[in-house]
Amino acid sequence: MDSPIYTVLLCRPSSNAPFHLQPIISPLLYLVQYAGTTPLSTLTPLPDPSQLPDSILNYRVQLNTQGVLSKQELSAIKQFRRAADYIAAAMIFLKDNALVERDITADDIKPRLLGHWGTCPGLVIVYAHINRLVRMTGIDALYVVGPGHGAPGILSCLWLEGSLANFYPKYSRDKEGLTALVKSFSSPGGFPSHVNAETPGSIHEGGELGYALSVSFGAVMDKPDLVCVCVVGDGEAETGPTATAWHGYKYIDPAESGAVLPIVHVNGFKISERTIYGTMDDKEITALFTGYGYQARIVEDLDNIDEDLAASMEWALGEIKKIQTAARSGKPIVKPRWPVLILRTPKGWSGPKELHGEYIEGSFRAHQVPLPEAKTDANERRMLQEWLTSYGPKELFSESGVPNDAILSLIPEQESKRLGMREEAYKAYTPLDVPDWRTFAVDKGTDQSCMKITGELLDAVVQQNPSSFRIFSPDELVSNKLDAVLRHSGRNFQWDIASRANGGRVIEILSEHTCQGMLQGYTLTGRTGLFPSYEAFLGIVHTMMVQYAKFVKTAHEVPWRQPMGSLNYVETSTWARQEHNGFSHQNPSFIGAVLNLKPASARVYLPPDANCFLSTMAHCLRAKNYVNLMVGSKQPTPVWLSPEEADKHCIAGASVWKFASTDEGMAPDVVLVGIGVEMTFEVIAAAALLRKTIPALRVRVVNVTDLMILGPFGSHPHALSDEDFDSLFTRDKPIVFNYHGYPVELKGLLFGRPNLSRMGIHGYMEEGTTTSPFMMMLMNETSRYHIAAEAVRSAALLNPRVEIDAHKTISTILHLAQKDKEYIHAHGADPAGTFDRPTFD
Ligand SMILES: Cc1ncc(C[n+]2csc(CCOP(=O)(O)OP(=O)(O)O)c2C)c(N)n1
Ligand SMILES: *[C@@H]1O[C@H](CO)[C@@H](O)[C@H](O)[C@H]1NC(C)=O
Ligand SMILES: *[C@@H]1O[C@H](CO)[C@@H](O)[C@H](O)[C@H]1NC(C)=O
Ligand SMILES: CC(=O)N[C@H]1CO[C@H](CO)[C@@H](O)[C@@H]1O
Q1: Dist. CA 780 → ligand 3 center (Å)
Q2: Average pLDDT over residues 182-202
Q3: Atom 13 in ligand 2: which residue has the minimum CA distance?
Q4: In the record, which residues are listed under signal peptide (predicted)?
Q5: How far apart are CA 458 and CA 353, in angstroms?
Q6: Ligand 1 pocket: which of 124, 149, 195 to mutate (most atoms <8 Å of CB)?
Q7: Which atom of ligand 1 is nearest to the CA of 149?
Q8: Which listed ligand is nearest to 783 at the C-alpha?
């Protein structure tokens, strides 16, 4: 052996390491033994990887591709591709003359040329070969398209297979329907430039790149017969979320779930630059995917690309079946190596070759519109004419525009097997069986962690829904105190022997992006999930959540798409209680992200105690089509409401808390409002303090659980009418809000309510460090002292009996705050009894 295999040495089991830390013996065993003969001293300098023998380092698969397709099959595939490429190109350019029955004139060309050509031929060839595989084997397949900007390539195939006509009769499979499709694409009333919820068969928009792979993994979970073919662009492959999503397989149990067949479409370019994958040689690519745990097959024989891809897809499906069969017969393969295809084809393949002396096909210039001046420039128009007629539309379509028999022979006969008609993508929602939350309710007057109690409910949800509910968590389940779910379930980590094959409902991967993508794929195919997270880090998936909400908004407007479950988030480990962590872990900004969504889909809840949290969770797990954000504490805090009271409170979204109010809140001088667990506690403590120090002040305490009630009437389905708002908050009395999030969000919501000048808002002020819980309140002026002082200050303006001593009272109260600060600095902890339940006697 000439060169040492340094990568392999790293895997060598060490006899001293505890068993669970040793890598699992795998196909690498052979290599390990081999490498074991290499003296360590030869490891530096590192050998040139190109010198390493392929067969040892790289799981690069070689296949005999000859004769895999019959003559008829090959001809059908080629004609399908020609037809689809033709239609895709026509969609970008033409508004009339869709079959190019006469010479293209300037009038035939759209006024604005919009669309992305470059990726289309690649998406089309994959489509054609999925069709072949479906026809041949009868598999259930979904197609998830990473480069969603290649919508013309997908829509053209959907038209050919009749799925468009099925959902949109105006796009009938004839000349009229084709003309309508071509004409309206990227124009008002037509399909937009990206795959979206209007596109039959889609569960992923692919506008914001990076998520196709994780969405695919989520989609196949608990659907053992589903194969999700996922094209990842080589540009998309450069994204962080895609990089981490390659590990998705490590969370797929082949016995209970289906499979993803990833195809990296290496067309070499992105918008205006080479791609990283496009510059990697075969060894680099196979070594990379070998490291991720795959066997890679490079598909690149351009002269025989259909044979190459057909053989490769058959091989890939065969590997998938091997892995699944082994697992389903109780003998799972240890660290199975799933297949991945690397498809190398030129960008804009079959399009114009050159313009003004520069390459188009096979370069970034093919990315969008390859002949941008076709309407005004006769030369470009002639090139367009040549390009489109080169596909031979007259052979492909009859005079009435119907695709020929060869093309139709490639389309799955059974409609429900066609990629555009898979039920998973549009009507698969099974509501969860959620137990009555009152069974888990806790006693009023005790102290409880919202998360611990909710964990008990989730444990029951897991048991009652063994294959339609999952939790996606970035390694925070235990830290967030939701681990009761692990009582009857486990973590579904296939590479850890202890976790394997136990039906674990919890996916813990420390990539918020992967958690989010999997949750999306799982939800959009009809199931329900939950994403609990540290409050500070949910913002990592902010734009993903927004993209998802756009997809759902559109889906909601598409008549043939049926409802789906909600996307459910729990935020805990909030800024207000940071025992171990500090400033970096204080960031309630995700609330604002959800508030910005369309009111029809946004729901933000800040339940004040464990019973309210239970009620909120039970509601959200059953609700459809929303993005639900639930914010709560994991630390024990008082249970203020009995189950019956919590139920009423949560239905109303807000209520007067009479026990903390003066005279049950009648005729108050000031209204104090808590929003969030700790904020509510401080408000109640402020009310108690005020009752002692200034009995003349009449206080009403209101608690708000559902943030959306605050917005002006009509702004959100939950928004209170002005009458209800007045009866809860009074018409003209000062209101002091103590809010868990950034004050500016609450300001935005309240804008439009009458008399804003009477409202004061306390909230997170971007102040913090690793400090005691009460110091966090003091630092951000959300403490009971700050709330009480402001109550006195504002009420003094209206109530003369308060005004007399206002200055003295405020000084006394703020002095207490100062004394507590000094105490905390001196002792490193809050004064004893700070969080004892306030008393009102
Ligand atoms: C997150 C994100 N960043 C940037 C873009 C802008 N963008 C649109 S297409 C594209 C290139 C995509 O390259 P690739 O995935 O290889 O697709 P293809 O080249 O096949 O069109 C980029 C950067 C985007 N859509 N999403
Ligand atoms: C607005 O609120 C202030 C302070 O509570 C009050 O004095 C005033 O009368 C209110 N104005 C109206 C128009 O209600
Ligand atoms: C928040 O805390 C910091 C530090 O104690 C202080 O400087 C700041 O003024 C506080 N309050 C507000 C409203 O910013
Ligand atoms: C605990 C408590 O005070 N609950 C009250 C909340 O407010 C509603 C009316 O909005 C009352 O009915 C509850 O008694």
Answers
A1: 5
A2: 95
A3: 755
A4: none
A5: 59
A6: 149
A7: 9
A8: 3
Q: Is the pLDDT of residue 608 over 60?
A: yes
For the Cβ of 149 lying below 6 angstroms from any atom of ligand 1, the answer is yes
Q: Which atom of ligand 4 is nearest to the CA of 654?
A: 10
Tens of pLDDT, residue by residue over 609-631, are 999 999 999 999 999 999 999 99
CATH code for the part of the protein at 656-827: 3.40.50.920
Q: Are 143 and 134 in contact (CB under 8 A)?
A: no
Taking the centre of ligand 4 as the mean of its atom positions, its distance from the CA of residue 657, in whole angstroms, is 6
Cα–Cα–Cα angle for 251, 257, 258, nearest 5°?
Answer: 110
pLDDT computed for residue 8 by the predictor: 37
Domain ranges of the chain: 6-57, 71-410, 437-636, 656-827
pLDDT of residue 58: 65
| Whether the bond into 45 is cis, omega within 30 of 0 | yes
Q: Is the CB of 233 under 6 A from ligand 1?
A: yes
Comparing 37-46, 157-166, 727-736, which segment has the lowest mean pLDDT?
A: 37-46
610-622 vs 643-652: helix axis angle to the nearest 10?
Answer: 50
Q: Provide the b/e sequence for 83-112 (b: ≥16 CB within 10 Å).
A: bbbbbbbbbbbbbebbbbeeebeeebbbee
pLDDT score recorded for residue 257: 98
Ligand 2 pocket: which of 672, 757, 802, 803 to mutate (most atoms <8 Å of CB)? 757
Per-residue confidence (pLDDT) for residue 773, from 0 to 100: 83
SS3 assignment, position 579: coil
Please give the model's pTM, rounded to 2 decimal places. Answer: 0.88
Which residue puts its alpha carbon closest to atom 1 of ligand 3? 780
Residue 532 Cα to ligand 3 middle (Å): 30
CB 50 within 8 A of CB 283: yes
- Which CATH superfamily does the domain covering 71-410 fall into? Thiamin diphosphate (ThDP)-binding fold, Pyr/PP domains (3.40.50.970)
Question: Which CATH number is 437-636's, of 3.80.10.10, 3.40.50.150, 2.40.30.90, 3.40.50.970?
Answer: 3.40.50.970
Q: From the CA atom positions of the chain, what is the Rg in Å?
A: 31
